[in-house]
Design brief:
Layout: H1 11-24, E1 27-34, E2 38-45, E3 47-48, E4 52-58, H2 62-69, E5 72-76, E6 82-94, H3 100-110, E7 121-135, E8 144-147, E9 150-151
Antiparallel strand pairs: 1-2, 1-5, 3-4, 4-7, 5-6, 6-7, 7-8, 8-9
Length: 164
C-alpha cells in the first residue's frame, strides 16, 4: 500500500470526514452472522439520519434473517484506502411499520420507495456504537473515532449530540 504523502489527521478531522461521507455516499457493505448459517456480507444503499444508518432489503433476505437472530452488525464504506468501519446494533422494521420520516428520507435519497412495492421489505436501523477511520498506515494508531456510541472529539456535554 502506498502511503507516501499521507498526513495523519486529528480525531476531529477524521470525525468530520466520516460524517461527510455518511451524509453523501450511497453504498455500504453490511456484514451479519447467524449462529447456524455463519457470516453473510452484502452491499446495500444506506441513509444517514444524523444518529443512525438506515438500509432496506427484502424481508426474506439472509441479512434480515441474520439480524433477527443476532442484531450486532458491522458496516463498511467501500474504500480500501480511506477506511470507515462502523459497528452497531440493528433493529428491523417491516416496511409498513417503519418510521415515516426515515422511509420518506430513504425514498427521497434513492428515488425508490420500498413501501410501494409488491414484495415485503424491511428497513434496518443501525445505531452506531463504534466507528474506526483511517487513511493508510500513518493513521492506524488512533483510528477509533467513536466508542460506546460517543464521538471521541466532542466535549462530554455534547458527545452524544449528532453533528450535521
Amino acid at each position: 500500500m502506498e502511503t507516501t504523502g499521507t498526513v495523519r489527521r486529528r480525531t476531529a478531522e477524521r470525525t468530520r470526514d466520516v460524517l461527510e461521507r455518511l451524509g453523501t455516499e450511497r453504498d455500504v457493505w453490511v456484514a451479519t452472522a447467524h449462529p447456524d448459517h455463519g457470516p453473510h456480507q452484502v452491499p446495500l444503499w444506506f441513509l444517514w439520519d444524523g444518529r443512525a444508518v438506515w438500509m432496506c432489503t427484502g424481508a426474506a433476505s439472509a441479512t434480515v434473517r441474520n439480524l433477527r437472530a443476532e442484531p450486532r452488525v458491522r458496516l463498511s464504506l467501500p474504500d480500501a484506502f480511506d477506511v470507515v468501519l462502523l459497528q452497531g446494533e440493528a433493529e428491523c422494521f417491516p416496511d409498513r411499520e417503519a418510521p415515516a420520516e426515515a422511509a420518506q428520507a430513504y425514498a427521497g435519497k434513492f428515488g425508490w420507495d420500498p413501501r410501494a412495492e409488491e414484495g415485503s421489505f424491511v428497513y434496518v436501523r443501525v445505531v452506531l456504537r463504534t466507528v474506526r477511520a483511517w487513511r493508510g498506515e500513518p493513521e492506524l494508531r488512533g483510528r477509533v473515532v467513536m466508542r460506546d456510541g460517543v464521538w471521541l472529539d466532542r466535549p462530554p456535554s455534547t458527545a452524544g449530540v449528532p453533528v450535521t
